[in-house]
Amino acid sequence: MISISIIIPLYNKEKAIEKTLKSVFHQSFTDYEVLVINDGSTDKSEEKVKRFSDERLRLISTENRGVSQARNLGISESKGKLIAFLDADDYWFPNHLESLFQLYQNFPEAGLLATNYQFYYSYKKIIQPVFDDIPTENWNGIVTDFFHSSMKFRIAWTSAVAVPKKVLDDIGNFDENITLGAGEDTDLWIRIALKYSVAFDNEVSAIYQMESENRISLHKTLERKFSKLDKFSNEEQSNSSLNKYLDMYRAEFALKHKLAGDLQSFHFYKNAISKENLHWKTKFLLLLPNPVLQVLYYMKKKLEFFNIQTSAYH
Questions:
Q1: Do 147 and 239 contact (CB within 8 A), yes or no?
Q2: What distance in Å separates the CA atoms of residue 88 and residue 126, rounded to the nearest whole number?
Q3: 3-state SS, one letter per residue, for 223-270
Q4: Strand-pair category, 2-10 with 80-85
Q5: Which of 45, 167, 174, 199 is geometrically suited to a Cys-Cys bond with 110, CB 3.0 to 4.6 A?
Q6: What digits encode the pLDDT tens for the residues 217-265?
Q7: Burial group, residue 256, by CB count within 10 angstroms (0-12, 13-18, 19+)
Q8: CA distances (Å), 200 to each of 134, 147, 169, 279, in order?
């Protein structure tokens, strides 16, 4: 049986997919298959994939149905014991799969395996995540409180995680009712973390490419179907870390909908928040009129251009 199946959803990433696949085929760990799910690309993405002749690569083409459906199709076609995910505009360092498989062997009870990563904007601007209650160097192990440690940066980022196939058989796959990167991955990680332990290696092995050709932008908000987050209402009543974690996402979703002019969805998320869970900056932003909020949003983007990071959530 193949050790690892790598699922890569592909939609109009002709400028990035070659670099992504090269990073896969340069892995030190070699017992894997690669399933590229071409989700109805209209550019030359499929042509770029076909340039690779590695026998471990399978290209599956389908009509455009969204990233959740594409990943689920890849999972259904996979033959590996472990499922690793990679977006078509991100890439891995050569140690990535080796690190994930070592976690899999060392912590067989874990339902989610994750490694550290970096946000890459340019060679002059690389952001390194740090996590509460996780050592900053030379550590791997079981995360004590997944939700608490994911408040500033997310321990589980899609292009740096793997899940045992048997866990997906138990928990289920990505929720196809959530679309266009509006929380389908977060939803799955929560479901897993509520039932299984999470193993983490803080050595960086993956790059989140921020300046790719078609990352979801703010103006797409009204086209997306966001996670409602209410499916976890029972669990968060007895799990304060989960409650605070979900409220952070509710605030984020509320602000995005307010910026997009969808006040009904804004109030849906805002009214579900326990105010004591929010930073004062978040509370302040939720109260602002939309024109002022938009000005602050574009000021934030300009500051990021000059490598100045701001956060409304901590």
A1: yes
A2: 19
A3: HCCCCCCHHHHHHHHCCHHHHHHHHHHHHHHHHHHHHCCCHHHHHHHH
A4: parallel
A5: 199
A6: 555 777 788 888 999 999 999 999 999 999 999 999 999 999 999 999 9
A7: buried
A8: 9, 13, 22, 27
d(CA 45, CA 140): 36
3-state secondary structure of 171: helix
Taking every pair of C-alpha atoms in the chain, what is the biggest distance, in angstroms?
57
Amino acid at 47: E
How crowded is residue 261: how many other Cβ atoms within 10 Å of its Cβ? 12
207 C-beta neighbours (distance < 10 Å), count: 22
Nearest C-alpha neighbor of 179 from the set 15, 12, 65: 65
Judge contact between 88 and 11, C-beta under 8 A: yes
Does residue 220 sit in helix, strand or coil? helix
Which residue do the tokens 């998320």 mark? 269
The answer to whether the Cα torsion of 207, 213, 218, 222 is positive or negative is negative
Q: What DSSP state is assigned to residue 219?
A: G
Contact (Cβ atoms closer than 8 angstroms) between residue 67 and residue 184: yes
Structure tokens at 297: 């949003």
Which two structure tokens, joined as six digits, stand for 311? Answer: 């956060």
Which amino acid would we find at residue 113? Answer: L
Parallel, antiparallel, or unpaired for β 197-209 and 110-122?
parallel
Q: What pLDDT sits at residue 106?
A: 98
| Two structure tokens written together for 122 | 């340019």
Coil vs helix vs strand at 151: coil
Q: Write the CB contacts of 179 (distance below 8 Å, at least 6 apart in sequence).
A: 66, 67, 68, 224, 225
Q: Which residues contact residue 263 at a Cβ distance below 8 angstroms, ignoring those fewer than 6 apart?
A: 257
- Distance between CA 266 and CA 252 in Å, rounded? 10
What are the backbone dihedrals phi and psi of residue 125, each rounded to the nearest 5 degrees, phi first? -140, 100
Spatial distance between the Cα atoms of 62 and 35, rounded to a whole number of angstroms:
13
User: Per-residue pLDDT tens for 3-48?
Assistant: 999 999 999 999 999 999 999 999 999 999 999 999 999 999 999 9
DSSP letter assigned to residue 123: T
